[in-house]
Amino acid sequence: MTKYSCEIICHERCKGVLTHRDDSELSKRIEKTLSDIRGNAFIGSYIKRTLWPPPYKGLDNLYVIKLGKRHRLLYSVIIEKCKRFATIHDFLSHSEYDRLFGYHT
Asked: Looking at domain 7-101, which of 4.10.520.10, 3.40.250.10, 3.30.2310.20, 3.10.180.10 is its CATH number?
């Protein structure tokens, strides 16, 4: 375990997508990304607070990881009693992510 390793917690709205496993390329990417996050909670790109849409305003931090060209994973890192948790908030298509953050594609 490294000093940046953590446990993964999935928000209810994305739990089904993230726990479903098959042989698809997306499932393999998700599994690798979750493994990468477990090894280093800060592997994603930090999103500046001024860019956060309303559903995320109450969080302490927000990170995004690109899952190929079509999908994005949004998560935050929580530290409690020297233990680190990555809470997965959303698994979105690229267009859903762009809409949520007000980007035009």
From this structure: 3.30.2310.20
